[in-house]
Amino acid sequence: MAADLRTRLGHVELPNPILTASGCAAAGRELAQFFDISRIGAIVTKSVMLAPRSGRPTPRMAETPSGMLNSIGLQGPGIDAFLQRDLPWLLSRGARAVVSIAGGTVAEYAELATRLSDAAGVTAIEVNISCPNVEHRGQVFACDPAAAAEVLEAVRSRARYDIPVFAKLSPDVTDIVAVAKACVSAGADGLSLINTLLGMVIDTDTMRPVLAGETGGLSGPAIRPVAVRCIWQVRAALPGVPIIGMGGVRTGRDAFEMILAGASMVSVGTVIFHDPSACVRILRELDEELSQRGIERLADVVGLAHEPRTAPRRGLAGTAAARRMP
Ligand SMILES: Cc1cc2nc3c(=O)[nH]c(=O)nc-3n(C[C@H](O)[C@H](O)[C@H](O)COP(=O)(O)O)c2cc1C
User: Fold this and answer.
1) Could you tell me the distance, in angstroms and rounded to a whole number, from the CA of residue 95 to the centre of ligand 1?
2) Which of 28, 152, 307, 319 could form an SS bridge with 186, CB 3.0 to 4.6 Å?
3) Is 131 marked active-site?
């Protein structure tokens, strides 16, 4: 590696900013056939719930222009199996584990945070709040700043002090900054932006929705500009809060765009289904993007796009980032 790619996940240092996106690499086992999973910043696991779940009925995937629609639901083995099987395996591989959690009630999220804090080796918790609140007419936590804050407050107060807690936000809101601020005020150490957008595909032959669950989450390149916009807005409002950016990243240049918008880490999701080695390729490409521009440290360009335009933008010349360099 030519550039210094070290970054911070809250107070935890990662060797580089490339992570998997939750739900796109299970608990990392499948990827380990393709590359050494300790080489990337961290594995973000599929959202785990308290009890095992079988997910939604099939079909639950549909191709869309420049993207994919899924209604997998939160299928998974539950926290007991995760702690017995998946977490020790990740640690045995030398991987850093960011554990994504999901629940239907605030109490469930709190219990998951307690269980993870009792286990050794959790690098961070990512709180997936794009779940229906069963105690409040199924309203999605992430769509209401007060409900989102309640979850984050419960998780932060139960999670061990040395485990950073990130809130993963939904773009399906009018004002993502309001939700971001509520989560940070409630104690979130950072934000993950963005989860999928709610979409739908109708089969014109059967004249019915393609997905058995009717609607699904849209991911892939189609959503990248939405993700960049969300990262930009949240970074502008909360400049000191670390952001994990994601949504349609396929190349090192895509990751670099999110970093310029304000992300200090980038998660890679849908592209993994086409290219299982995408994370290490994107890591190499990002290093090349930085080196070609004479950028020595990733940390110097996080959020750079927010700085006023200066005369010829070649490398970092003329920017505050350049002035910070020795
Ligand atoms: C098949 C699939 C399953 C997903 N499962 C989860 C999940 O369990 N928890 C979560 O927070 N996000 C989940 N996501 C959302 C991704 O983590 C990511 O936020 C989103 O797909 C945007 O990134 P991408 O376009 O690179 O895939 C899932 C996405 C896909 C495509």
Assistant:
1) 20
2) 152
3) yes
